[in-house]
C-alpha cells in the first residue's frame, strides 16, 4: 500500500524492520488483526516527525507521536504512553496528569524510555510497550482511518488504523490534545 511516497507491506513479513517487542506484539495479535499493521523502511536520520513528514510527503495530522511520561504520587512511580497526532500536543500537565491520578508528571528521560521499552528513541511505538503501562490514545487518533507511528526503531514506520491503536491492550481513548 502506498502512503505519501512510501510503499508499505505487512509487518509480519518484515520483522527486521521492527523492534523485538513490536514484532512480538504484532505476531501475538489475534485473528487477522496483524494483517492491518503495515511497515515501510525509512532513512533513520528522518525519523523525527517534522523531517519525516516533509521528506515523505505525509501530513503531520496523518502521524501519531508516542510520548512516554513518568507519573509520581507519594512514593509510587509509574509510566504511561500518550498518543497524539503529530499536529497536536498532549495536555500532559492537565488531562494526562488528572487521568493518571498523578501528583507530578514529567516526560520520561531518554535513557528511561529506551531501557524500559527496549525501543529506539525517536521510534517508540505503542505497539509492544510493557503490558502494565496505560496507553492513553487521543480521541482524534482513535478516529483516524490511517496513521503513521513508530515501529520501535528509527529505520522504519508503521501504518495502522486509529481503531487498531485504540484496541491495543491497556489502551484508553480520551481527549488528550491541548487546546491551541
From TrEMBL:
Gene3D superfamilies: YbaK/aminoacyl-tRNA synthetase-associated domain (3.90.960.10). Residues 44-166 form the YbaK/aminoacyl-tRNA synthetase-associated domain. InterPro entries: YbaK/aa-tRNA-synt-asso_dom_sf, YbaK/aa-tRNA-synth-assoc-dom. This is YbaK/EbsC family protein. It comes from Agromyces tropicus.
Amino acid at each position: 500500500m502506498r502512503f505519501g511516497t512510501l510503499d508499505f507491506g505487512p509487518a509480519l513479513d518484515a520483522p527486521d524492520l521492527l523492534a523485538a517487542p513490536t514484532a512480538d506484539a504484532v505476531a501475538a495479535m489475534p485473528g487477522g488483526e496483524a494483517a492491518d499493521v503495515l511497515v515501510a523502511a525509512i532513512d533513520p536520520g528522518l525519523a523525527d516527525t517534522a523531517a519525516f513528514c516533509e521528506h515523505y510527503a505525509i501530513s503531520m495530522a496523518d502521524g501519531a507521536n508516542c510520548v512516554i511520561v513518568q507519573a509520581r504520587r507519594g512514593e509510587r512511580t509509574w509510566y504511561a504512553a500518550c498518543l497524539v497526532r503529530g499536529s497536536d500536543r498532549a495536555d500532559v500537565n492537565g488531562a494526562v496528569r488528572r487521568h493518571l491520578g498523578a501528583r507530578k508528571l514529567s516526560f520520561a528521560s531518554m535513557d528511561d524510555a529506551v531501557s524500559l521499552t527496549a525501543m529506539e528513541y525517536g521510534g517508540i511505538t505503542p505497539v509492544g510497550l510493557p503490558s502494565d503501562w496505560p496507553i492513553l490514545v487521543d480521541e482524534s487518533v482513535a478516529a483516524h482511518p490511517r496513521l503513521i507511528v513508530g515501529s520501535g526503531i528509527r529505520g522504519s514506520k508503521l501504518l495502522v488504523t486509529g481503531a487498531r491503536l485504540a484496541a491495543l491492550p491497556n489502551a484508553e481513548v480520551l481527549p488528550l490534545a491541548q487546546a491551541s
